[in-house]
Amino acid sequence: MVRAAVLPAVGAPLELAEIELPEPGPGQVRVRLAAAGVCHSDLSLSNGTMVVPVPAILGHEGAGTVTAVGAGVTGIAPGSGVVLNWAPSCGGCPACARGEVWLCGNALNGAANIHARRVSDGTELHPGLNVAAFAEETVVSASCVLPAPEGVPLAEAALLGCAVLTGYGAVHHSARVREGETVAVHGVGGVGLAAIQSARIAGASRIIAVDVSAAKEELARAAGATDYVVASDSTAREIRALTGKQGVDVAIECVGRAATIRAAWDSTRRGGRTTVVGIGGKDQQVTFNALEIFHWGRTLSGCVYGNTDPARDVPVLGDHIRAGRLDLGLLVTERIGLEDIPAAFENMLAGKGGRALVTF
Question: Are the CB atoms for 170 and 252 separated by under 8 Å?
Answer without folding.
Answer: yes
